[in-house]
Design brief:
Helix content: 55-70%
Number of domains: 3
Strand content: 5-15%
Radius of gyration: 26 Å
Distance between the termini: 40 Å
Number of strands: 6
CATH topology of the largest domain: Nucleotidyltransferase, domain 5
Length: 454
């Protein structure tokens, strides 16, 4: 029967004087001061499995603490399993019992069970705690946006065509191994496709490159034809062993999904490379594995492939809110949403708001004043006067400099908490990863604040 927490700490638990161990001790105290977060975690853990039979498994408290450790130290699941086995400080923080050594698959299964809604609710409780402890008031905030990349390689038409050929061919081969008697036309063109890819990447002659593209497209079209012939056969596959039948059905679904993506890639390649058209970003495919990936362009910077997130920071350096978006919305379009979300969290609008220049517009200034914000400053004026935004030039400069502080928070999130690139798969996994990183970051900020006051 799964439990929420261990009722009694191990008798032999010792606290290290190492700085990391001291930070973990303070984080542990903060988690203990917010027992409501364990109810949220527990509900996710028992949602899909019975909790009153079988082995106990990790408690809700252990799962939460292990995930915080993973994000706090930027560990893989394998590294996390090793440190939980080897480090007394990590074991003490995780509240693992004697003889309890979770492997990487157990850690992954439990940690990935926590939904993005649960992480957001945990974040909300942590911010409430900071407010009750007088660490954060929410009266002065700073707003900025950044892009978080998904775990894909840099997409080009040629590499995407090769990805599609390789993936579908692998699944077709798996279907043939599952049922050798199944008859559907199938040939392996992965080697030939890779040769054409190397020509495309290395040639300097446009005619040679176009010829290689046409050959690569022909191979892709053949693979699509093979896959379309194989899907009905795999769907109708029946075997005495039900696991084989389910495996065949899963292969059919995967191939069908991949064929749909490959056909889009073929279309965009023909339009862009052969016909010389410009394909809108909203119609482009950038990955076979992370289909949700968006194309993010911010000003004159390099194009990024992932998702845009909007962050609200406070004077305490905590991240007070995060808005994760699909597509590439303009910063100015999300200013109202961020103010309203802040008001919902704190029960009142902030007194002073400082935002990046991308949020600047006369409508947003009027909106902020309508929410009874005294000083609404933007890093770039965009036709707005200082007196319109703030009550004095000194206040304007102070808030403009205050906004720059959120850049340090974003840098820390990306360097130390892995928010530069999401390594979890799927759109749901992306949101889980972002929120878990922000919760871990906020816990560290609170822990260091408590240590500084001690």
């Amino acid at each position: 029967m799964r439990r929420k927490l261990n009722r009694q700490t191990n008798l032999f638990t010792a606290v290290s004087s190492n700085p990391i161990a001291r930070e973990l001790e303070e984080i542990s105290k903060i988690i203990d001061a917010n027992p409501g977060v364990l109810d949220l975690v527990y509900q996710d853990l028992v949602k899909t499995k019975r909790h009153d039979t079988g082995r106990e498994g990790l408690t809700a408290e252990q799962v939460l603490r292990c995930c915080i450790l993973k994000q706090y130290r930027q560990l893989s699941y394998e590294e996390l399993a090793f440190h939980l086995d080897d480090s007394s400080a990590f074991r003490t923080f995780s509240r693992l019992e004697m003889g309890q050594y979770p492997c990487k698959s157990v850690l992954q299964e439990n940690i990935k069970s926590l939904s993005e809604e649960t992480w957001e609710a945990i974040h909300s409780q942590i911010i409430d705690y900071a407010q009750n402890e007088k660490i954060e008031t929410g009266r002065k905030i700073r707003i900025d946006s950044t892009a978080v990349e998904t775990d894909i390689h840099h997409p080009t038409d040629s590499t995407l065509l090769c990805d599609g050929i390789r993936v579908i061919t692998r699944w077709l081969a798996a279907g043939r191994e599952l049922s050798p008697q199944s008859v559907y036309p199938f040939s392996d063109h992965t080697r030939a496709a890779k040769k054409r890819l190397m020509v495309i990447l290395n040639t300097r002659k446009e005619q040679v490159r176009l010829a290689a593209y046409r050959e690569l497209l022909s191979y892709a079209q053949r693979v699509v034809a093979y896959a379309k012939a194989a899907i009905p056969t795999l769907r109708s596959f029946e075997e005495a062993d039900l696991s084989d039948s389910f495996a065949a059905l899963a292969l059919a679904r995967n191939i069908e999904r991949a064929v749909g993506i490959l056909m889009k890639v073929i279309d965009q390649t023909v339009r862009r490379v052969i016909k010389g058209e410009k394909v809108p970003a909203s119609e482009k495919v950038v990955s076979f594995f992370e289909e949700h990936t968006d194309i993010i362009v911010k000003g004159r910077r390099d194009t990024q492939f992932g998702h845009k997130i909007f962050l609200t920071g406070g004077a305490s350096n905590l991240i007070l809110d995060c808005l994760i978006e699909r597509g590439n919305p303009a910063d100015s379009d999300r200013y109202q949403d961020l103010l309203e979300r802040h008001k919902e969290q704190f029960g009142r609008a902030p007194r002073q708001v400082s935002a990046d220049g991308g949020f600047a517009s006369r409508n947003n200034l009027a909106l902020a004043k309508g929410h009874e914000v005294n000083d609404a400053v933007f890093a770039k004026k965009r036709g707005l006067s200082v007196i319109e935004m703030a009550k004095s030039v000194w206040v304007y400069k102070m808030l403009r400099n205050f906004r720059a502080g959120i850049e340090a928070g974003i840098s820390t999130l990306k360097r130390a908490f892995g928010l530069d690139r999401c390594t979890w798969s799927g759109w749901g996994g992306f949101k889980q990863y972002v929120w878990s990183s922000i919760v871990s970051y906020n816990l560290l900020v609170l822990a260091r604040t408590r240590l500084a006051k001690a």
